[in-house]
Design goal:
With 155 residues, the chain is α/β, with parallel strands linked by helices. It contains 4 helices and 8 strands. Tetrahydrodeoxyuridine binds next to strand 2 and helix 2.
Length: 155
């Protein structure tokens, strides 16, 4: 199946989604890296599902924010076409303030694949908004993860 590029989003909607990602980052459980990440997934019906990273004392078991959000989506009511994803992250200081780095936070390789599963179910190529203090990059998922493996490969 060829994914349709999800339509661009309105500036207000984009700002709302970025704000949801910032807010989600405040709920991260990241006592080991102290790098708090929030992800916000926007669906065609307007619903927004968020996630934050959840670390573990056994470091390798930690879950990224995007994966937590995707698990919420797929384990609750799946919401159809994934239009956009915003990702925000930064180191937290002793006062709980999150300071994003200058560079945009791009989803890790595993998260690209996990987001792709949600996108392929709805047949879209979502915009991924990678947020940073100096620069925010909007990029299609298909550019972050070309030739993705997905449900169609198993049909
Ligand atoms: N992390 C995310 O939540 N999403 C990403 O895309 C990159 C990394 C988390 C994992 C770990 O809890 C912390 O950031 C530091 O790597």
């Amino acid at each position: 199946m060829t994914a349709a590029a999800a339509p661009g989003i309105e500036p207000e909607t984009r700002e709302h989604l970025m704000s949801a990602a910032r807010d989600a980052a405040t709920r991260a459980y990241a006592p080991y890296s102290k790098f708090h990440v929030g992800a916000a997934l926007l669906f065609a019906d307007g619903s927004v599902v968020t996630g934050a990273n959840v670390e573990n004392a056994s470091y390798g078991l930690s879950l990224c924010a995007e994966t937590v959000a995707a698990a919420k989506v797929l384990s609750e009511d799946w919401r159809g076409g994934l239009v956009a994803v915003a990702v925000h992250g930064g180191m937290v200081d002793a006062g709980g303030h999150i300071a994003p780095g200058a560079d945009p936070v791009t989803p890790c390789g595993r998260c690209r694949q996990v987001i792709s599963e949600v996108a392929q179910l709805g047949g879209t190529d979502p915009l991924v908004i990678c947020m940073g203090a100096a620069e925010t990059v909007d990029i299609r998922l298909s550019q972050l993860l070309p030739m993705a493996f997905g449900p169609a490969n198993l049909a």
